[in-house]
Amino acid sequence: MWHPGAQERRTALVQLCDHDTILLIQVSSMKRFPRKVLEVIESANIVKTGANILNDGEKLFRDFGIQARGLVELGVFAAKADDTFNSVYNREIVSLAKMVAMYLGKTLLKGKVRTSNWEANLSDKMVEYAANDCHCALMVYARLQEIAFQAGKTLDVSTYSRQVDPRSLKLKVPSLPTLPQRLDAPTRPPVPAYCIPEPPRPQQLRAYKLWHVDKMPLEQMCMTLRTGTRVEPLKESTVISYVIGALQADPRLPFNVAKLKSLVLMEASSWQRHRQWIASRE
């Protein structure tokens, strides 16, 4: 169960639908974010709509490094499609429940199921809630399209769709505790403004070479980097950390940021661990 004030968790469920199908993808139970789902989310030609949809897109970037495109805020679209919308609401973001009431004449029930544990097995009520939430957004969008058509309006999706801009996001960096200053401490010589970094460890350099020079697939790297009598392959997160560690230890090592990002995104938890450093190199 989610509790107010709890630490933000990674996205557990992604909802997608069209007029024929509703997909509920529990990404928290998957080793990697589904490639086809990623392609849909990053496509500027496929509309993704909802209430506060850009916030959802930014969350996906923080969690998985996905740069969502084709995001259409329902309130923004309503203001362009329906002349009466601005007389009721003078803001861009309006809750989905209010949009459903205004354009579908129905009540969208939220209830306690909204704060359920979406990483667990989904109950029938959770499936119904998630599917209904996604479907309602599409139905409101379709209704607004009808209103625009009846009014003789031709709307260009490129003028009101948005995309996630990683440069505008402030990625949270854990802050170190502030130590109290001792006023009676003796004056110490200043710390030199330089330091000699430790060179990459042999295993880190080996991982870097396998990835950058040999272009070895991650799964094969996990097998190749085994040491001693170890039988099972290394964890993907461990191998990714080796590559990142080599690059951090020796800034002279060449690499392609886009390819590094693709490697990191192959293991779900690695993006959250290394995204701040990767973002600083873009």
TrEMBL record:
Domain of life, per lineage: Eukaryota
Tagged with keyword Ion transport: no
InterPro entries registered for this protein in UniProt: 3'-5'_exonuclease_dom (IPR002562), 3-5_Exonuclease_domain (IPR051132), RNaseH-like_sf (IPR012337), RNaseH_sf (IPR036397)
PANTHER family: 3-5 EXONUCLEASE, EXONUCLEASE 3'-5' DOMAIN-CONTAINING PROTEIN 2
Domain 3'-5' exonuclease: residue ranges: 8-146
Organism for this UniProt entry: Boletus reticuloceps
Protein name: Ribonuclease H-like domain-containing protein
Lineage per the UniProt record: Eukaryota, Fungi, Dikarya, Basidiomycota, Agaricomycotina
UniProt GO molecular function: 3'-5' exonuclease activity; nucleic acid binding
Record flagged with keyword Nuclease: yes
GO annotation, cellular component aspect: cytoplasm; nucleus
